[in-house]
Amino acid sequence: MLLALGPAAACSDARADTLDPADCVAPSGTMQQDLCQAAEYDRLDIALGHALQAANERLAAGASCISACDQALHALDQAQEAWIVFRDNDCEAAYAIAIDGSGRNSARLDCLIEHTRIRTGQLQRL
């Protein structure tokens, strides 16, 4: 259900071999900053997946609803799909606004990170 993004995914292979957590304390350049942000986004995306799975499990078990659990599960699935479209479009806009500068990847990753943090919190409160 979660979608991989081109720039973040492209950084994954390079990041796996070259990124040390200490490098992210004070990134030395744009590339290192992008790699650090991509690693943070990857971590948050995993947490989002866990929060979504937990929300689905609570609803499936009837823990968060009384009689309309199937309807709630369906609505949550639709909401997540709509959120992904919204997130991707919003972050594409952030990228496009910064397209002519070296911070374009950072703008997209900042957007992805912020949206993912917010959505994870929403799912955890469900």
Present the secondary structure layout.
Blueprint: H1 6-18, H2 30-60, H3 69-97, H4 104-125
How would you describe this protein?
This protein has four helices and no strands. With 126 residues, it is mainly alpha-helical. The two termini are 18 Å apart.
List keywords for this structure.
126 residues, elongated, disordered N terminus
Largest sheet: none
Please identify the structural class as seen in this structure: mainly alpha
- Percentage of residues in DSSP E strands: under 5%
Q: Counting H and I runs of at least 4 residues, what is the number of helices?
A: 4
Range of helix content: over 70%
Low-confidence stretches: 1-16
- Terminal Cα span: 18 Å
| Overall average residue pLDDT | 83
Q: Could you give the order of the helices and strands?
A: HHHH
Give a quick rundown of the structure:
Helices cover 75% and strands 0% of the residues.
